[in-house]
Amino acid sequence: MWQDNRTLEDFRAEVDAFLDREWKPLVQGASGGHVGEPEKKAFRRKAIDAGYLFDFISRDYGGGGAEMPAQAAAVVRDAFAAVGAPLMPAGIAPWIVVPVLNDFGTEAQKRKYLPATIEGDMIWSQGFSEPGAGSDLVSLRTGAEFRDGKWIVNGQKVWSTFAHLAHRMILLARTDPQAKAHAGLSFFLIDLHQPGVTVRPLTQMNGRQEFCEVFFENAVVEADDLLGKPGQGWEIAGATLGYERRFIANPMRTSMMFGRVLDIVRESSIDGQPAIKDPRIRDRLAQVKGKVEAITRSALREAEFSAAGKDAGTFVHMRKLLQTTVEQEMTLIVRDVLGNRLLTMPPGDEDDTRWTNEECWNNFFMRSLAIAIAGGTSNIQRNIIANRGYGLPR
After folding, report:
1. CB within 8 A of 32, min separation 6: which ones?
2. Reduced to 3 states, what is the DSSP secondary structure of residue 51?
3. How buried is residue 343: exposed, middle or buried, by Cβ count under 10 Å (0-12/13-18/19+)?
């Protein structure tokens, strides 16, 4: 656990010792080195109790309870990445739902939802986009009406990731049709397992089902599952999208992905020669490496600003925009190196998040294109950078 009177070197030694003791034996004892989910969950709980994960969440709600400075958090992130140790459960909940609940939730909401979400026992989806409201989110039409002490929801959401697996959804809905567009929105924590909710997975061109459309027909939200106040939805949605952009522009993910790209290049050949010796590939790798480092340094600088109570400005928007570019560039390098070997498409239900086989890079290439849309399109990021960062007119 971080203490203010310690040096980063001492803290790094402590984290390394923790991983040597708690994680490396799990890897050594696992079949093929792939640690099972129950073991990962038990490891994460030990890491939380040690203050390394969810450090910004009180122990009363299942967190680490001692928030670290940005430099210490980077030490944890890098140490875990170096040995392949898991940081968070899968899905959007740890990165997006947990901080939003911590920022805006009541005491009762935090006690009800944070512990199970942190443990990975409660899965969440996001209900923002609609068929007629994507980038122009404020034009959404899903409505919620307060009747007899409950909110009644009607409408449709789309592109809700893994909604067919989720227990609940963070939902943005219009509660005051007479108010100005932004002012009439509210933010809900809705149960997806109820008669008024229909979830339909969308099958993608790669055979996978990651996104869903969700229909609400007189679905019920209890009064105490309104997050914040009526009409505060746009403010909370803005904070949510900020956390989503940080999740997408995750420097640890980018660094791990680049490491796997290097492995593939080292293991492959082009025209009978090692691919790593091809000057064109080396030049592209060097450019990507520079961008990976820029993403990492930008994340640290943003965290330092936030820790000092300063406005981090457009750092996250620039990082998200760069992340979109660099992931596409990495997948293109792998595609060019593997060539015809990449023609084999992986099965739709394959876990491709480990980058452990060549075929999964087809999915990564297609996903890198989708990242340009998630969390706000690249053009939206450019507009925000221009308006807020440089003061240019809309």
Report:
1. none
2. coil
3. exposed
The residue-averaged pLDDT of 101-127 equals 96
pLDDT in tens, 196-239: 999 999 988 777 788 999 999 999 999 999 999 999 999 999 99
Enumerate the active-site residues.
Answer: 244
- Residue 351 clears pLDDT 70, i.e. is over it: no
Residues 6+ apart with CB under 8 A from 7: none
- Residue 197 resides in a domain: yes
- Provide the number of structural domains found in the chain: 3
Q: Is 113 exposed, middle or buried (0-12, 13-18, 19+ CB in 10 A)?
A: buried
Question: Are 186 and 171 contacting, i.e. CB atoms less than 8 angstroms apart?
Answer: no
Listing DSSP states for 76-137 in one string gives: HHHHHHHHT---S-SSSIIIIIHHHHHHH--HHHHHHHHHHHHHT-S-EEEE--BTTBSSSG
Q: Residue 284 — very low, low, confident or very high, per pLDDT cuts 50/70/90?
A: very high
End-to-end CA distance of the chain: 46
Q: Find the domain containing 196 and state its range.
A: 124-231
213 and 262 within one domain: no
DSSP bridge pairs for 189: 170
Which CATH number is 326's domain given?
1.20.140.10
Query: Do the domain assignments include residue 284?
Result: yes
| Domain containing residue 152: CATH number | 2.40.110.10
Half-sphere exposure of 122 (CA within 13 A, CB side): 19
In angstroms, rounded to a whole number, what is the distance separating the alpha carbons of residues 130 and 213? 9
> Do 123 and 196 contact (CB within 8 A), yes or no?
no
pTM of this structure: 0.84
Say if residue 316's pLDDT is above 50: yes
